[in-house]
Design goal:
- The protein has strands at residues 3-7, 10-13, 18-25, 34-39, 46-51, 58-60, 68-73, 78-83, 92-98, 103-104, 108-113.
- The strands form two sheets. Strands 2, 4, 5, 6, 9, 10 and 11 form a seven-stranded mixed beta sheet that branches.
- Helices cover 0% and strands 52% of the residues.
- A hairpin with a 4-residue loop joins strand 7 (68-73) and strand 8 (78-83).
Length: 114
């Protein structure tokens, strides 16, 4: 059974950092491209960061470039999102996604207070 479980969200002040985790089961994360998305209240879900399967190449939304880093730990079968220099505009529910079969986690709330 495929499952994605996000964790690591919380309340942080402007300029702070958080590290989100996405633990996968039922498939191997290194075999598929993985991504993080986010959805703020009243807005559509948007792409944040992605990592390809073989090369591990990463790409980011312009709004988070230089502040966020996506990574993968094959031994833990998990994907991470290191978020630094957080801004109020980063407040959202963050979701882990495996695009190939459109698997989603339940999301983790990130709130940045000013």
């Amino acid at each position: 059974q495929v499952q994605l479980v996000e964790s690591g969200g919380g309340l942080v002040q402007v300029g702070g950092s958080l590290r989100l985790s996405c633990a996968a089961s039922g498939f191997t994360v290194s075999t598929y491209a993985m991504s993080w998305y986010r959805q703020a209240p009243g807005k559509e879900r948007e792409f944040v960061a992605g990592i390809t399967s073989i090369s591990g190449r990463t790409n980011y939304a312009d709004s988070v470039k230089g502040r966020f880093t996506i990574s993968r730990d094959n031994a833990k079968n998990a994907v991470f999102l290191q978020m630094n220099s957080l801004e109020p505009e980063d407040t959202a529910v963050y979701y882990c996604n495996q695009a190939r079969y459109n698997y989603w986690g339940q999301g983790t709330q990130v709130t940045v207070s000013s």
